[in-house]
Amino acid sequence: MPRRIGDVDNEGTTIVVGGGISGVACARALAGAGRPVRLVDRGRRLGGRMGGRTLHGRVVDLGASYLTAGEGSPFAPVVAGWVERGLARPWTDTFAVAGPGGIERTTTGPVRYGTAGGLRSLVVDLATGLDVQLERTVQAVTPGPRVDGEPAAAVVLAMPDPQADRLVGTPEGAADAGWQPSLSVALGWPDRRWPADLHGVFVHDSPVLEWLADDGDRRGDGAPVLVAHTTPALAAEHLDDPDGAAPAVVAAVRALLGIDADPQWTHVHRWTFAKPAEPRSAPFGLDAGIGRCGDGWSAPSKVESAWRSGDALGRELAGQLPG
Question: Which residues form the Amine oxidase domain (predicted)?
Fold first, then answer.
C-alpha cells in the first residue's frame, strides 16, 4: 500500500524536478497552499516541451503547437487570465486534414490558443514568484525521499517516464517504448506561399509528416514560417542525425501545399520523448513521497492535461504534507 507523505519522517521543502508546465503548475499549487517548494530544471530556461527557439529574429514554437481549455476545466480561468493580459490569443477552431492526395477537408474542434511571445512565455509567467533553480541537473532520487542525497519533504518528477525512471534507478529502457519521438522542423520562406486560412494541417498516411502548423498565423505576426512535426517512425530513423531528415520534410511540405521553391532556411529540433503512446487516465502517481506528473497522465495527452496533472498533484501533496 503506498505510504502517504505524512508517514515519511522528513520535513522541509518539496523539490519539483522539471520546468515544463506540469512541474510549474505543481509548484504553483504547493506555493499557493503555503508549502515550501523549489523548482529545479537542468535547462537554461523554463518551458519543457512548450519550448521554442529564436530563429532569424523571432521566436518559433517547436514543441507544443497550441493549447486548449475545456469548458468547466480548472485550466480555463488560467487561460482566460493569459488572454486578458495579452499573453495568449484565440487562434482558430478549424484545421485542414490531408492525405496522400493532398488536403481533403477541414475539421472543426475547440478553440486553440496561440501566443505572440511563444508558448514558453506562458510557463515563465506561471512561474512568477516561485523559487526556481535553473541549470541544476539532478542525478538521483532515492527513498526518503532524497534528491542527490539531500532530504526533501517530497519530490515531484515532472517529466516523461523514461527520464523519471532513470532518476529513481529503474533499469534503462524499461519505459522508453511507451514514448514516441518526433522531429520539429521549422521552415522559413521570403514570403507566404500558402493559403491565408491554412492555420494547420493534420496529415494521415504519410511516412514523413504528422502535423503542420502555420507559425506566423498562430503567433499573429504573419511571418512566412511553417513548423512541421514528423511521424515517430521518421524521427526514430534520425535521432542520431536530426538534420538528415530536413530534405524529406521539405519535399513533403512542398508537395502537400504546392509550394514552388525550397525554404530559405530550416531548423530541426529533436524530441526524443515527444508524447506518450498510451497516457494514463489517472491524474498523477504518488508513492512514498515521490510523485510523478505530466502529459503521460490525465489522458489525452495535451497541454491542458499536463497542467491539470501537475496542479492536481500539487494540491494532493499540499493536503498530505504535515504542518
Answer: 110-272
d(CA 26, CA 37): 9
Q: Which domain holds residue 124?
A: 5-320
36, three cell numbers: 515550501
What local confidence, expressed as pLDDT, does residue 322 receive? Answer: 82
Distances (CA, A) of 310 to 141, 164, 292, 297, 320: 18, 15, 8, 9, 15
Q: Is 106 left (phi over 0), alpha (psi -120 to 50) or beta?
A: beta
Axis crossing angle, helix 303-320 with helix 21-32, rounded to the nearest 10: 30
Distance, CA of 153 to chain centre: 27
pTM: 0.94
For residue 71 the three cell numbers come to 469548458
Single-letter code of the amino acid located at 20 = G
Q: pLDDT per residue over 124-174, tens digit each?
A: 999 999 999 999 999 999 999 999 999 999 999 999 999 999 999 986 655
Q: Alpha carbon of 292 to those of 203, 205, 296: distances in Å?
A: 32, 34, 9
Tell me the C-alpha distance between 20 and 161, whole Å. 14
pLDDT band at 175, cuts 50/70/90? low
Mean pLDDT to the nearest integer, 37-46: 96
Is residue 244 predicted with pLDDT exceeding 80? yes
Report in angstroms the alpha-carbon separations of 126 from 77, 80, 84, 301. Answer: 13, 13, 14, 20
Predicted confidence (pLDDT) at residue 192 exceeds the cutoff of 60: yes
Domain count, the chain: 1
Q: How many CB atoms lie within 10 A of CB 94?
A: 14
Write the CATH number for 167: 3.50.50.60
Helix (H) or strand (E) holding 311: helix 303-320
Q: What is the mean pLDDT of the chain?
A: 93
